[in-house]
Amino acid sequence: MLYVNAFDEQTRAPVTGLGVRDFVVREDGLAREVLSVTPAASPMAVAILVDNTQAASNNIADIRRALQSFIKTLGGIGPVSIIGVADRPTILRDYTTNQTQLLDGANRVFAMPGSGATLLDAIVEISRGLQKREEDRAAMVIVTTENTEFSTRYYKEVLEALAGGGAQLHAVVLTTPAGSALNDPARNRAHVLDVGPKVSGGTRTDILASQAFEGKLQELAAILKSQHRVVYGRPQTLIPPEKVEVSSAKPGIIANGGPARGQALR
Q1: Phi, psi of 173, deg, nearest 5
Q2: In this predicted model, what pLDDT tens digit does every residue of 124-147 receive, in sequence order?
Q3: Separation CA 96–CA 147 (nearest Å)
Q4: How much is the average pLDDT of 240-248?
Q5: Cα-based distances in Å from 87 to 53, 81, 111, 122
Q6: Distance of alpha carbon 226 from alpha carbon 206, whole angstroms
Q7: How many CA atoms lie within 13 A of 58 on its CB side?
Q8: Nearest to residue 142, comparing CAs of 157, 154, 127?
Q9: What are phi and psi of 27, to 5 degrees?
């Protein structure tokens, strides 16, 4: 079983009401029969990793406003948490469905003077925490500027942890012409932000101005709330597939996603 995002390639508006002929599922490159497609209804755990470093100082008001809109739009999807990444991963609001508490957590996002990011540490720690949760679908949403990465983790370690947690990684990144410094931490961070969304069935969106955070996060919230539950047939085998891919059979529609959490891949 898969949880799949489907949205218009041009407008990014979610596409609903799709059926078994609208998706293509492959395991290790082999096509599988899609048996049923229904709206996803189970709770989704959502971890928001937010940039509260010094580099975000000029953008922090826009980030707070975007988080508030995102939280309101996500209402009812499941438990949501907010984690700051400045200096060390810090829980600003633990998983809850209480909108008032989440909005209060968003209001606690302030830039920490002299701080750098520990985004890669946060991805690893949140992924490990997700392994203990019961929800069969999850998303990790990164809201960040390009900044100095203090984590010393290698990208393979981070991607392995992400896979173990079973969350789709969605990143909204404020880019700058110069970008971040080309050192090893920056390269590992850039690789995770590039590859992580692809391998986890998530998305990456780059923006040029912090005012765009709000609109892009609202688009993402609508996509997550419109996920499809795709059930497909697979042969009886003791060896699970290494890779499961889903795509759209309809032109102009992007479909991506991944297995329900707890379905082990080799």
Answers
A1: -120, 125
A2: 999 999 999 999 999 999 999 988
A3: 29
A4: 90
A5: 8, 18, 11, 10
A6: 22
A7: 7
A8: 127
A9: -110, 120
Cα 130 to the chain's mean position, in Å? Answer: 13
Q: What is the pLDDT of residues 190-225, one digit of tens each?
A: 999 999 999 999 999 999 999 999 999 999 999 999
CA dihedral 134, 137, 140, 141 (to 10 degrees): -130
Confidence at residue 238, expressed as pLDDT on a 0 to 100 scale: 66
Give the chain's length. 266
Would you list the DSSP string of 61-106? HHHHHHHHHHHHHHTTSS-EEEEE-BSS-EEEEEEE--HHHHHHHH
Element (H, E) at 140: strand 137-145
What are the C-alpha distances in Å from 150 to residues 37, 61, 97, 197?
43, 23, 31, 21
Can you give the pLDDT at residue 180?
A: 60
Q: How far is CA 106 from CA 37, 39, 87, 207, in A?
A: 35, 29, 18, 21
Q: What is the largest CA-CA distance in the chain?
A: 56
Q: Rounded distance, CA 218 to CA 198, Å?
A: 20
**Running DSSP on this structure, what letter comes out for residue 253?**
E
